[in-house]
From TrEMBL:
Coiled coil: none annotated. The keyword Cell division does not apply. Residues 9-86 form the Myb/SANT-like DNA-binding domain. It comes from Zophobas morio. Involved in transvection phenomena (= synapsis-dependent gene expression), where the synaptic pairing of chromosomes carrying genes with which zeste interacts influences the expression of these genes. Zeste binds to DNA and stimulates transcription from a nearby promoter. This is Regulatory protein zeste. It holds the Pfam family Myb_DNA-bind_5. InterPro entries: Myb_DNA-bind_5. Keywords: Transcription, Transcription regulation.
Amino acid sequence: MNSERERVRSKNFETQEICLLVDLVRQNKKVIECKETGIVNNKQKGIAWEKLTETFNAISGTVPRTSRNLKDKWTNLKKTAVRNFAHDKKYARGTGGGPSKGPTETSVDATVREILGDRLTGLPAVCDNDDVEEIRNGNEIEDSIVPEIENEENMGTSNSFFTENSASSSQLVLEEDVVAQPGDTQENELDWSQYTPRMLKKLPSKPLHVSKKGKIRVGGNITNYKWCQLADEKRNNSVFKKKLLEEDHKQKQEIHAIMKNQLQEEHEQKLRHREEEHCVKLKLMQEEHALRMTLLKQQITFSDVDNNQ
């Protein structure tokens, strides 16, 4: 029995066989790497692995492999690719120190990563500080305050801002950003020689006016009021769900009370029926007993008369 259960170890995979296996899996990745686990999908995966095994054995020309061997090897390749990718990612985010290390990811790992996609690399974080802005043409992005007015109906971004509506037209006019050049003089400069506190109450310039429903970019970080709206919607949904659950619980309590009353009425009705049935039976038994006693008395009387005669 032990000899029959002993696992037969096959020959190690060569580099040529590994490349061939990865190439065949890439051709059939839509079926093999499908995440659905229904009966039909599992059957299709089994058929795909059988065809892949036949093709592999026909092309490799080495030791014949079974579908089980190829499945196990593909699983090990995926684990190795994930481990090497995580190691390189951790080293890239390190603070330095010690001798430099080369990338551990091989060409086979790169092909496996291409097949798995986001399942191996993960989705990029776009809603927190892990989002890295691109640096184009080698110029660093300076921290600046960039006003962006965002329409409530159209959330598209724009590099221009809206000016005031003119008195003769109600259309919005786009104004390009203007960079102040050295030597330029601003019109209508204030005379600060006679300073009064009321001068500080003047409204800010038009480019600094930002709608509360828009967004302000400060130092590359974006504060979007849509997240606040989403939080409010989630809170409203939670309140609505709580209300529904309370109503459902109240309805269940009412149904339980009705069923309890019905069962209690049925029980009382059965008790009344049994009591009435018992009274009727008792009355019948009493009448039967009376008749029997009368019959016995008559029989005794007749026997006494016969004896006297």
